[in-house]
Design brief:
This protein is mostly helical. It has 3 domains: 50 residues; 87 residues; 143 residues, Intergrase catalytic core (hpI Integrase, Chain A, Orthogonal Bundle), CATH 1.10.443.10. Helices cover 48% and strands 11% of the residues. It is built from 14 helices and 8 strands. The strands form 3 sheets. The chain has a 3-stranded antiparallel beta sheet with strand order 1-2-3, with helices on one face. Strands 4-5-8 form a 3-stranded antiparallel beta sheet, with no helix packed on it. Strand 4 and strand 5 form a beta hairpin. The radius of gyration is 29 Å and the shape is elongated.
Amino acid sequence: MSRSLWKRKDGRWGGEERVRDPRTGGIVKVSATARTRKEVVARLEGRAQRVKDHKAQRDSTCTFADAATSWASSLADVAQYSATTRELYSGDVRRYLADGGLAIGEIPLSKLRGSDFEDALGEMRSRGLSASVRRRFLTISKAIIRREMRDGRLGFDPTQGVNRPKSDPIQPKAHTAAEVREILTRTSGTRVGNLVVFLAHTGMRVGEALALQWPDVDFDASTVRISGTLVRITGEGVYKAATKTKGSKRTVPLNSYAVEALRRQAQMQTADAERAHSKYEFSGYIFTGDFGNVLDLRNASRAYKDALKSDRDGESIESSFHRLRHSFATLLVGTGESANTVAAILGHNSTRVTLETYAAALDEFKSQATDRLGSLYEADSL
């Protein structure tokens, strides 16, 4: 189709081009201005191509925060995201973009550049946010940009070439066996005492344990079947959702301590029901509150930390349910269990996650193994 170019009185160049819209068959006029003739031609060609691709001529002028908020509101219709992931992503959008948390949120889509995302990641790092949080922010940003490009509001990907933050080298510090024993002593007899014993002997994620129901337990085989995780969604309450990954859906063996903790929990529920009478709710969940209601992570964590506060000697224990899981895995690796076995029990999708997370413990065990072999050679030489 025809194209016209001219030099304006202010020294800049202008241009127009007529393009046939393949959807309607009609003629669409695109225009552009720039400092040089070459730049005008490039812009006209780009806008003409966007018409042919059924896209808007120009990039949207809405801010990145506006686009992020719109994207977050559409997550409920995206089947690929679990309820937990939707809540996590929506929270990040509110925290870092919608509420003015990061400067990048105020930048119009048409002016976004890769350096803006690198600056945002640097700002998050300076605030002490972990690499996993920064990586998730970049994942969210890429999803938002893809949506804008798909719908014709953006003609380029400013996140292309932006490197994902590297993993944090520091892993949570595992408790020693003696510290775990002290934790079990302090939490014994509390509302979460049986839960803590169960977690310490299974390495289960706390959400997985809280989602367990009595039919999931096979006392004859001493196993428990994990099929979901308990989540709290803002505005929706607490409910059982799908596991974190496909590998998380598994059957976990129970040792005698874990089995005994479940039997004590059943006795506690019977006592609770007798005290509460008609107010008791038979929810079917294993770890429950005083009235049979499901025990969610927030209340369980608060009870756990309260039980570990200063004892008679004035000493507190810093811990979390995640750290208890990390301790289980580290101590299990120390017994000589293979990475495959540990990964299967923990519900890791692959042994790579296990090897990366517990590399230090594995290295220490390998050193001990070679020392034992050396001692064996020395004994045989005598």
